């Protein structure tokens, strides 16, 4: 799968859920329940197979954006810190935890199936619990990874994150992001998705360069 990790942004999910009447109070789920939900999303939507843009009559739209940031640190260190989704916790105020369901290596590619949990404050302080189901594929020997994700209401995000050594101690991280959603939600999804990824990039850059990561 290609691009679940970093996911759909909390504001996007909140708005989408509210618009479709799917919002609900935050509730705790066991890791086993989350794993079952992940498998259902995988079996039902096969989000990793979204290779072409949907036809107009499907009521869905797809938009691609590229964003980059330069980080001053060795490429192996940048890659390991950046590709670890657990390091994204705290870079976004709503991301509360990441539950890993499977982690294995096959043909030099590391696969990680996980669910990201975000608690989004709504009216009167009642939180909405949003779950993003994802699979990450890490190609460490080639310094890139991919993440595919799916979030209610049927929002798919595909990511390919590439790490390039610019010399003189600088590494450029380029995120190729593809968002697919209802035509009613796509503009909001893209705008907030890009801004969330940029905020996470800035947070990771600061943490890597100051030695926190």
Automatic annotation (TrEMBL):
Keywords, ordered alphabetically: Signal
Keyword match Signal: yes
Secretion signal span: 1-28
Organism, scientific name: Acrocarpospora corrugata
Protein name listed in UniProt: Polyketide cyclase
């Amino acid at each position: 799968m290609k691009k679940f990790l970093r996911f759909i942004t909390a504001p996007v999910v909140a708005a989408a859920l509210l618009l479709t009447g799917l919002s609900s109070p935050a509730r705790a789920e066991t890791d086993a329940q989350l794993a079952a939900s992940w498998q259902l999303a995988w079996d039902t939507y096969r989000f990793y197979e979204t290779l072409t843009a949907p036809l107009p009559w499907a009521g869905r739209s797809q938009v691609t954006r590229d964003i980059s940031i330069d980080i001053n640190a060795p490429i192996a260190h940048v890659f390991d810190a950046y590709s670890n989704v657990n390091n994204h916790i705290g870079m976004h105020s709503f991301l509360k935890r990441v539950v890993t369901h499977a982690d294995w290596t096959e043909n030099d590619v590391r696969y990680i199936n996980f669910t990201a949990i975000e608690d989004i404050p709504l009216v009167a302080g009642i939180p909405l619990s949003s779950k993003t189901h994802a699979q990450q594929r890490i190609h460490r020997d080639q310094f890139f990874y991919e993440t595919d994700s799916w979030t209610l209401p049927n929002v798919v995000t595909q990511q390919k994150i590439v790490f390039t050594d610019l010399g003189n101690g600088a590494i450029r991280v380029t995120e190729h992001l593809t968002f697919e959603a209802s035509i009613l939600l796509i503009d909001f999804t893209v705008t907030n998705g890009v801004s969330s990824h940029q905020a996470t990039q800035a947070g990771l850059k600061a943490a890597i360069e100051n030695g926190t990561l």
